Amino acid sequence: MVDNRSLYLGPRIKRLRRELGLTQQAMAEDLAISPSYVALLERNQRPLTAPLLLRLARTYKLDMEDLAAEEGEDYARRVAEVLRDPIFSDIDLPALEVADLATNFPGVSEALLRLHGAYLREQQALAEQRVPGAEEGADPVAEARRFVARERNHFPDLDARAEALAAEIAEAGGAQEFLRKRGLRVRFLPPEVMVDTIRRYDRHNEQLLIDDTLDAAGRAWQLAIHIAYTVMRSDIARIVRAETFASQTAATLVRRALAGYAAAAIVMPYDKFQRAAESRRYDIEALASLFGTSFEQTAHRLTTLGRPGREGVPFFFIRVDQAGNVSKRLDGAGFPFAAHGGSCPLWSVHSVFGRPGEVATQWLELPDGQRFFSIARRVTSGGGRWGRPQVHGAIALACAAEHAAKLVYAQGVDPRAAPATPIGVTCRLCHRAACPARAAPPIGREILPDDYRRAAEPFTLGES
Asked: Pick from 250, 267, 284: which residue ends a domain?
């Protein structure tokens, strides 16, 4: 028997429509209702009945569990928690009014939640300023990175599913033909038609639109990302649902990371890639040519080879911009990344911006004596046509020194005898006194006055 219970899911429907790139008119046509009814649904002025919920799930191939959850109750609970903040203690806030706000004015509720979240983050930042070295707060980027690091950037279920898909794609004659057989047309269109997007799924007309200025590796990657987000949707969702994240943003970032992981596993299937990496001695450029991928995509994939019995060299990966901001960080080698601040300026990842196309190798030694071998190169994104700016970054892939002999880049070098650059995790955590590149004194060390003596280093440090 069909459950005719009514649900008010306005914000969720609106978010879904925007994620799908649909207008209210297009969604109305898909669901055989009027555009004005879609607008009423999104404003919670009409309920979403069970039959319409089923139609929505079938039309857009969605998971009923995701759609049918009680969002109004969740909003009411979250708003009630916010309103218990001591800042509101002198205001009479009856529970019925809170429930009415969450149910009838979800937009205002969301605005209140965002504002309070921003307020709490500012309070946390002020607290951390007063407590040097405090651990990270509820930072969604940090939370997503911690999740990936905890799994050592290896997700065997995604690898297994992607390998099977890669075989199906090869049998179909390529990703484009694979999608065509599933009823999806792929079109490569100029930027002025794409309107500031490089990939867009037009579900209404069942076509995938891709910027035609992308190079071959970029096109192949966008096809693989779409397959990951659609064909492997449930596989990714299962991993995300198994975790509890502090915010929706953190969950979204994890989902994005898993989709990128799945896309890499489709383009570079685990067994084939791991065998090639071993036989080519981890020559990133050679592997990129073999699999039709970019240098960065290939380096990224090398951090994921953690299958028991078929492990690759454990690497860590970092990407920085010219200002030193870290935009990607993956750890499969146990490198002690800094929670706050930039990395060491003596690391060659910061010096390759003026050496396009050149791979820079470097032996590194941390203050505790750990030694690593690093491969760094400049990478570029954007561009592809006149007027579109290029963005330059630098990536580094590194492993513990004992694994370096497996790499073509360190062939014939004794890692115990190779001269290493002394680096720190970050200036605030590095206690090397004789460092000419130091930007800040380490935590817990006093700076000596330089009235009568100015050392060659930026700071003269007292005893610990």
From this structure: 267
